[in-house]
Write a structure and sequence with these properties.
This protein has 7 helices and 6 strands; from the N terminus they run H-H-H-E-E-E-H-E-H-E-H-E-H. It is of the alpha/beta class and about 200 residues long. It folds into 3 domains: about 5-30, no CATH class; about 40-75, no CATH class; about 80-200, Dna Topoisomerase Vi A Subunit, Chain: A, domain 2 (3-Layer(aba) Sandwich). The strands form 2 sheets. Strands 4-3-5-6 form a 4-stranded parallel sheet. A two-stranded antiparallel sheet has the order 1-2. Helix 4 links the parallel strand 3 (about 80-90) and strand 4 (about 105-110). Helix 1 (about 5-10) packs across helix 2 (about 20-30), helix 4 (about 90-100) crosses helix 7 (about 195-200) and helix 5 (about 125-135) packs parallel to helix 6 (about 150-170). The longest helix has 21 residues, at about 150-170. Belongs to the RecR family. Keywords: DNA damage, DNA recombination, DNA repair, Metal-binding, Zinc, Zinc-finger. Pfam families: RecR_C, Toprim.
Length: about 200
């Protein structure tokens, strides 16, 4: 396998990217100048050194100089409402909700969705870490919002997570809700506008 094929194979592992698109990426790079390629390589290398995963919500965030915190700016912000926890599938969902400005609580990122026939759920989503967090914070959490997309796989994920956390939630008398009207079938949270997200939050049940 030559360099073009190897690089194309790597691009094909990106979400939503097939073999043809991955080849286009390679040929696009071949047309760029050396300065562009060097900057791209440098940025990719810097991911390991400059980006951290929040130890609480598992969001990726930029590490700041002279700051030793292992939690992101949302989790360390004293103005956020710690008594509401929203569970989302991925970082881009959190970013979409933050851009909308309609939510001021805390988050937990599952890290993806659960394929319907998956035999090892914990290898796909952070359900164990979620249960640990809820156990730790159940004394002050009043509501947990399951904010998954409206797709078959996302709905399956929500059902699995609901069943996993239900014993803890019931014992601690925590209200468990899901996003309501506003999101149409097939909708991903990251592509929803502020009004749609606001209606979905207001209509949660």
């Amino acid at each position: 396998m030559d360099t073009i094929q190897k690089l194309s194979a790597h691009f094909a592992q990106f979400p939503g990217i097939g073999a043809r698109q991955s080849k286009r990426f390679v040929y696009f790079l071949l047309k760029k100048d050396r300065a562009y390629l060097h900057e791209l390589v440098s940025l990719i290398k810097s991911l390991e050194d400059s980006v951290l995963e929040c130890t609480r919500c598992h969001r990726y965030f930029m590490k700041k100089h002279n700051e030793a915190s292992d939690q992101c700016s949302v989790c360390t912000n004293p103005a956020r409402h710690k008594n509401i926890l929203m569970i989302v599938e991925k970082d881009s969902d959190l970013e979409a909700i933050e851009r909308s400005g309609v939510y001021q609580g805390s988050y937990f990122i599952l890290g993806g969705t659960l394929p319907i026939l998956e035999k090892d759920p914990e290898s796909k989503i952070r359900v164990r870490e979620l249960c640990t967090l809820i156990e730790k914070e159940k004394s002050f959490i009043k509501e947990i919002i399951l904010a998954c997309a409206v797709t078959p796989e996302s709905e399956h994920t929500a059902e699995y997570v609901h069943a996993a956390i239900e014993p803890i939630v019931e014992e601690a008398h925590i209200k468990l809700t899901s996003l309501g009207r506003g999101l149409s079938t097939g909708t991903e949270l990251e592509y929803s506008d502020a009004d749609t997200l606001r209606f979905a939050l207001e209509g949660r049940k």
